[in-house]
Amino acid sequence: MQFNENLNRLKTYEPGKDIELIAKEYGVKEVIKLASNENPLGTSQKAREAIIQNASKAYLYPDDSASELRNALALKFGLKMQNVIIGAGSDQIIELATHAKLNHQNAFLQCGISFAMYEIYAKQVGAKAYKTRSITHDLNEFKSLYEMYKDEIKILYLCLPNNPLGECLNAFDVEEFLKDLDEDCLVVIDAAYNEFASFKDEKKHINPAKFIEKFPNLLYLGTFSKLYGLGGLRVGYGVANEDLIDALYKLRAPFNVNILALKAAVAALDDEEFVKSSLENNFSQMQKFEDFARFNAIEFIPSYTNFITYFFEEQNSSNLSEKLLKKGIIVRDLKSYGLNAMRITIGKPYENTRFFEEFEDILKKN
To answer: Which of 143, 150, 238, 363 maximizes the CB count within 10 A of its CB?
Structure first.
């Protein structure tokens, strides 16, 4: 059987390893998953209650307009419901944007290392990828590449903060950079982790209402999979001007987000105490990961997310990750990104302590 020739250019997305499979494969009783940037505190009580209260409605199709969640997000950001689209994870909005703007005759631009789905979706439609030499966001290099290939580049991705590295640009610098872009270039600000960055440093905060007012070609993405603890329900959103949202709606499949996800997301938005606790746990524990790296002479990039990335010179990240797996600790090896590095989700205090103990022992024996 023959398939679309674009498939020959694609690599399959590599998800985090499953807890049950690791426990079975390695015979480990307790597995700690620090690989997929899920909220270690779980799901908020309000969201859990919303799921239970609406479980009896699972036989019904969800509200296709997602009006309750769109209104809640509009209220949060000071916008109108018409400025919001809901997706099965924010990566579904990336897919819609790809089909709206890219084809085999044009291209997208991203920094050297960023979220893998930008390129996977682009290659599905035959579009070309331009990447900066720098693995992190260098706006001067972005500007140079954009000026060089501006006739081809129809989407420019800024992942703020960046996944899988964790760095983040200042909002002011982003705003100044965007002033020089052509309005036909769709700018996607992937803000899946921006709540973390805003908590750590207000200069990193991207205000979607302000940005879409100034830049009609901008699409802001958010998710409930990280801070809000709803990764298993797959719900994200896009914020943009009405014309852009209308275009994306033409590509959206009907009933794309299930009823429990919609109800849980509305409740999660309202649980400010859970959000505050999650942010405080994250950055108090993040300091321990930075201290551990310095003590063991491990290079890292200061992170504005709920994970930290360790870089290695002499040790092999794949070997180290495999040894951690045998101890029942799952981290994300970044060899698939071409990096000798591992990304570690910030967990609960006892999970992090176990990681430090086991990893230090591995480093000494390696």
So the answer is: 238
For residue 68 the two structure tokens come to: 């309750």
- β-strands 107-110, 32-33 pairing: unpaired
Spatial distance between the Cα atoms of 309 and 331, rounded to a whole number of angstroms:
10
Per DSSP bridges, beta strands 307-311 and 236-239 are unpaired
Could you tell me the pLDDT band of residue 5, with boundaries at 50, 70 and 90? confident
What is the tens place of the pLDDT at every residue in 331-340? 999 999 999 9
- Average pLDDT of the residues of the chain: 94
Model pLDDT for residues 224-251, shown as the tens digit of each residue: 999 999 999 999 999 999 999 999 999 9
Positive or negative, the Cα torsion across 82, 87, 91, 96? negative
pLDDT band at 161 (very low <50, low <70, confident <90, very high): very high
Three-state secondary structure along the chain? CCCCHHHHHCCCCCCCCCHHHHHHHHCCCCCEECCCCCCCCCCCHHHHHHHHHHHHHCCCCCCCCCHHHHHHHHHHHCCCHHHEEEECCHHHHHHHHHHHHCCCCCEEEECCCCCCHHHHHHHHCCCEEEECCCCCCCHHHHHHHHHHHCCCEEEEEEECCCCCCCCCCCHHHHHHHHCCCCCCCEEEEECCCHHHHHHHCHHHCCCHHHHHHHCCCEEEEEECCCCCCCHHHCCEEEECCHHHHHHHHCCCCCCCCCHHHHHHHHHHHHCHHHHHHHHHHHHHHHHHHHHHHHHCCCEECCCCCCEEEEECCCCCHHHHHHHHHHCCEECEECHHHCCCEEEEECCCHHHHHHHHHHHHHHHHHC
Beta-strand relationship, 186-190 and 153-159 = parallel
Query: Nearest-CA neighbor of 40 among 349, 338, 342, 359?
Result: 349
Task: Quickly tell me which residue has 């140079």 as its tokens.
Answer: 144
Structure confidence by residue, pLDDT tens digits, 37-67: 999 999 999 999 999 999 999 999 999 999 9
